[in-house]
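Bit of a strange request maybe. I'm writing a small parser for structure token strings and I need a real example to test against, not something I typed by hand. Could someone generate the tokens for this chain?
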Amino acid sequence: MAKLTDIACRSKGAGMHCDGDGLYLQVKLGATGLNRSWILRYMIAGRARSMGIGPYNHGASARPF
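Reply from user aminoacidic:
Good idea to test on real output. This should exercise your parser:
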């Protein structure tokens, strides 16, 4: 699966956008426009879990790690 580029991250509309290996870019509509953050989805004991790992900082590295 192709990784999200910086340009793709900035152009995505509201929703969850997969970057691969459980990493998602979450885009939400807020009072000041679109808010972007990284979400890691994983399984523990057969149950789906999600963990926020930080905001999307355009201008910095496109991926948090």
